[in-house]
User: What shape does this take?
Amino acid sequence: MERIFLKKDLGKNLEEYDFLGLKNALKMQPQQVINKIKESGLRGRGGAGFPTGIKWETVFSIENDTKFIICNADEGEPGTFKDRFLMENLPFKVLEGIIISGYATGSKYGYIYIRGEYVEAIKIVKKAIEKLYEKNILGENILNSDFLFDLKLVRGAGAYVCGDETSLINSIEGDRGKSRIKPPLPVFEGLYGKPTVVNNVETLAAAAEIMSYDNNPYSQMGTEKSRGTKLVSISGDVNKPGVYEVEFGKLTVKDIVQEVAGGVKGEKIGFVIPGGISTEALTEDELNVPYTYENLQKMGSNIGSGGMIVVSSQRNHLEIVKNVSDFFRDETCGTCFPCREGNKNINKIVSDIYKRGYPTSHEIEIISDIQYAVSSAARCGFGESSLNLILSIFEKFYTKKVEV
Amino acid sequence: MKVKINNREYEFDQEISILDATKKAHIKIPTLCYSEKLEPFGSCRLCSVEIKGERTLKPACVTKITDGMEIFTHSQRVRKTRKTIMELIIASHGINCNLNCLTCSKSGSCEIKEVAEEIGVTEIRVPPISNGLPEDRSSYSIVREPQKCIVCNRCVRKCSEVQSVNILTIANRGPDTYVTTFMDKGMGNVDCTNCGQCILECPTGALHEVYQMDQVWAALSDESKYVIVQTAPAVRVAIAEEFGAEPGKIATKQMVAGLRLLGFDKVFDTNFAADLTIMEEANEFIERFKNNGKLPLFTSCSPGWVKFLEHNYPEFIDNLSSCKSPQQMFGAIAKTYYANKLGISKEDTVVVSVMPCTAKKFERVRSEMKGDVDYVLTTRELAKMFKLAGIDLLNVPQEEYDEPLGISSGAGAIFGATGGVMEAALRTAYEVITGKELEKLDFESVRGIEGIKQATVEIDGINLKVAVVNGLGNARKVLEMIKSGEKEFQFVEFMACPGGCIGGGGQPIPTNNEILLKRMQAIYEIDRSLSIRKSHENPAIKTLYEEFLGEPLSEKSHELLHTTYIARS
Assistant: This one.
């Protein structure tokens, strides 16, 4: 599969990399940069899909001497590794995006928070930051402008919930990695109580890319609600797992599995998890759905982080459910009751089901009720989505689907 | 601001939380992690409500109302969600044959039981899960039973936000999250002040006092022992609550009768010892004031406060009054003066205290004054003993305290409320210094539930700057102000618990602001109703000095009634 935007910069070292996006941005007023990002239709690539330009504009419009940009590189969603790919292969593009967002929002300080397990990415980004300081692309008078920006790398200690922006902020501040109550949103009161933009690695890389063009090719691609391209990391039972850039709306999920990732390994597709393990599974006959935010939502699932996991029909579905439940049981931060107790209890039920080999209707009813409560009342996105996949597998494979 | 709650329109002029708004609309929303004295925390999610246009439910405790908001407090989605969360909570609360409601310390005041009823939980469909954590019995005052803990953080927050003591914390994450002390050392091995505020805050039976009821029963049935009981001023205005009476019901005489029915040989009053404390402390103050001694003088009646100071501000130890607390003074006098009078040996005399306080259990074993008091019961424990003995407290014939250690003044009674020690001391100090009779006995400026009260009191042309402080968080603030020179005082009363002894860690649960105020009113009512309202006019105290102690601060009183402190940092 052709890489659309990223191909031209792959493998470039600092001498070759042009920082065109940043150079263009520095020639413009911050509001113009924001407008360009807004026009591009770029939505946050971390999973929530919030319009990036609006986030930047909110922070820009708040008057405060201190504002922060945080690049969320705590990629912890199982099956998702596109941010790692970006940091390891295109570190300058990621950093460029951070600096641009700093310029656009009037922030002088940035943090890149990388999950502790990404040892290689940490090494590469660290070196890249040092080089940017040497080359006057970070620090004072960036590229001879009067813009000043400092960037610091923070290494996460390895907690999935720190991918939630408020947990991440707590973690940088040295507190427990647990979510904060929203409101206030981080754009108003984030790191150290200051206005803070938290953007995903891919979002910032895309922003840098968008800024590097005079015209706006990004906005010409995709659909109205899902513009541009998306990095999809495909893993599981496919012949060619990897990170691919696909244009929104051009391909269906099935196309991505069959054409981009080389088709399923094994007899046939059992199910596909389209966006990481907090998104609902799609069965084989649900895969003819165009890959866009809106279409996947219609199917009751989500683009999520873009971590697509393909599961062959030969696998034991219950083993996967057990695995996913183990993960969420361990990774809930433990602050809010529904998420902590819900994941703990479901894990126990799922373990029983796994041992037995099949669930009872009573168990499915309880799982459904717990998922309902947790997704309605958990404190952060982690809890809200933690039981979606588990319930969807039980609903789609272990009960007869009732048509309404 | 106009909002609709359950399709009815309400108007509020402030941006309050949904929880406060619904309270004003007389709609009760269940809560567990919420507490009026603490910052809203938003973790139990039982207060979740539906808001029109919102994708998920929102917790009422931390969500503010906005103009035009449409709130549904008990919709289908809300009810279903709450019910499931409650089921999960109960499943993790360690209820099995060994840990059941029947034996729980909070069997009569269980908040989760109450909330489960409000939510209408009728079955628990998930199997119980125990965290398997061991009990913490390292403290002389407080027991922790982590298997009953639901990790609502209220104890942690109370200890930190209100008391600024910070000995409790959250450890681990996810389902392994639990409440513990620093390095898992146990309550007895960290800087715990034993104030027991965590017990009052706990919605389950995960925290309770170290029980001494069994030892007291044993002493009562031992015929070779002469068992004396003393009751603190704050107990009499609270104990009736355990029998269903309205807060603020004064049950002094019923309690005295009940104690006799339990079999105590003599029923005495800590108020007597409070008067004695005032004699010593007022004179100590006058002496320090006249001879350029260490000032400000800090009161030392509250053992939670004393331990807090020893841990956190040892540089102020010399400011502490050397007077023992009334509890300890009583024990010392009972085992010497009174036992001698009766011709009973010290060894055969058993002194039991009934206190609103859990820290008194620790004070009893302090090496500086060990042996004065044998057992300490909280208000709650005494109520349990009454119940066990079948004593219908509200209906027993009323009786008076025994003499002479049961005779007391109104000054002794007000020790039970914050500001009481100060007021009592001022009544005596004024008359000792001036030799004139005090016209107005009520020092209104030191009364009330406020955390820090300051006043200037004129005595014989001298302006005394005094302060009254309750709650350890406020104590820390005031100590810092004194340290930095921002404030200067000559005399400061400190109480570990918010509201003073009426809000003590050993008092009936619930103890909230509304209840505190009612208990406080009752305390001042007792003072008003008494003919003797000044400690130095207590005839039994006068006799004690004539017959035994000589005069305040005498050698004898120093030997029996004064103590020392240690730096614990």
